[in-house]
Known about the structure:
CATH superfamily of the largest domain: Nitrogenase molybdenum iron protein domain
Number of domains: 2
Strand content: 5-15%
Largest sheet: 4 strands, parallel
Oligomer: single chain
Number of helices: 12
Mean pLDDT: 90
Strand order of the largest sheet: 2-1-5-6
Number of strands: 10
CATH class of the largest domain: Alpha Beta
Distance between the termini: 112 Å
CATH topology of the largest domain: Rossmann fold
Shape: globular
Order of helices and strands: HEHEEEHEHEHHEHEHEHHEHH
Low-confidence stretches: 21-33
Helix content: 40-55%
Amino acid sequence: MVTGGLVRSRLVRTRLVRLLTALLLLCSFHGVAATPPRLVVLAPHLVEQLYNIDAGKMIVGTVEHADYPAAASKIPRVGNYAGLQLERILALKPDLVLYWQSGSPAADISRLQSLGIRTEAFEAKTLDDIASDLLRLGELTGRQPLATLRAAEFRQRLAQLRQQYQQQSAVTVFYELWDEPLSTIGPDAWPMQALTLCGGKNIFADARSAYPQVSAEALLQRQPQLILQPASATEARRLTDFPQRFASLRAVQLKQLAKPDADLLHRATLRTLDGVTELCQMLAKSRAFYAGLGASR
């Protein structure tokens, strides 16, 4: 004879089994990941983008200069743009290595691939690519909903900036990356995306390389209206001797020099549009200055 207690016990077990089965099916339906992937990320801007979609805790190794947000500074380092510490990367047992196509050491990447490490390359060439890369990172990390939201916000803001500045008159610009040797940007350089959007005309847009060295004579001959000297917030070196060195430039005489935030402009992240906004405002101020100068004559 089956007692009432035994019947109740069997009913409870049956209900628990059904409940657990339902929960497992629900998790499977929604694609819940069992274990987050272990990531080694070989570019500061990719690190920042992962934090933007709440995937920063998945990063187990990165490179020098990955310093934003502040939490990124605590991630173990595995090298820099010049070379990677392959043994250290292997010791971290990554599920996936994310790298910058044109900024990570090609030989080291090939070596990792030959060892069976899964890798994914990223190469943003336009401002629109920032949103596309974010969506791809969302797919790789299981953060698609947040990545989709962030990408949509970015695209909306980018469209607004383009609409605001697309009809502005051009301001000729010298974009100084370095003073010795004197270096600037060419037609395929990343900062050209922001400069063009804001109505800037690069005086060395005819250069044959993306980041050419130029002569002082060429700069003096081309006479830009505005000198841009991008600087990192943490950079100690500042280009303070430019006015003395190029005193004959009309832009120097008219005090048309500006220092945009290099971290914002030079890293392909959501914050890029903060840098673009700042840059557009600098060009707008210079544009208005020259318009007023012409009107006063």
